[in-house]
Predict the structure of Serine protease.
Amino acid sequence: MKRLIDPKIYIPAVAALSGCALAALLYFGFQTFTNYKMQKEEAIQIQKEKERELELQKEQDSAARELKERLRDAELADLKQQLLDLQNKSSEVKTVTNTVEAKDTIVDIVKEWGPRVAHMECNWFYPNGVLFAKSTGSATIINFTNLGIRAVTSKHILAEKKNYAPNVCKILLADETEYSVLINENTVSVGPNEDWAYLTLPKDARLTSITKSTVKLCQNVEIGDKLLVLGYPIIGSKTGLTVTEGILSGFDRDYYITSAKIDKGNSGGAAVLIKNDCYLGIPTASVVGVIESLGRILKGSFVISN
């Protein structure tokens, strides 16, 4: 006879198997749902990214159209301006011509006066020949009828050491020709009260050549007149002449006041009035204000008359 399975064993076994099958079904169903949900979210995210890309592309296209419109407007404006310039060509040519003439005038003045303006260095030595001190500045070479050729400069350059005159001063021209002047009562003259001095120079061919034209003293000077200051300031060119431009800003007894930049080293150079190409005087000092500084120029009448 066949042996029957005991119901006490069979029923629990079937129940266990059914539970396992149900759990498996639930697990796989949950996994399937989770995967579906993730895929759906990814699809949504991809869709959003595409929408953002489309929006960005629209913005770029809009910006490109706006830029093209601006360029077109700018080109039209430029064409209109060119047409206007052509219509006003005659007046423009006149203005440009006047500007060039003014620039040429300044260039010509610098070419004329540049060779006259020299770099000057004065040296003090100990008795044993060791250098004690030095001062630098500028000088203007002038050929006086009764005095001969002199280097006109500022007295304070020679009085750097108040109680002692320098032993020697060197005059270096723009073409690098150099003259040494031994300082004594025969080679130097100074203003009694004003800031000017003369140094005697030899009457050689080079100095005679650069001083052959007569120096004109400025007359009828007015506030607002344009001027040039020529010299060798410490902060200027290391190898050549420096030129600054300004106007005559006022009068102060023996001095003209100017907006032209005058720095240490300019002292002793030349101030030239542009309108008459004449000698205005000796740049000598700057007085510093709250924001800017105004230079002072000793009137040329002290030099020419002395």
Remarks:
- The mean pLDDT is 82.
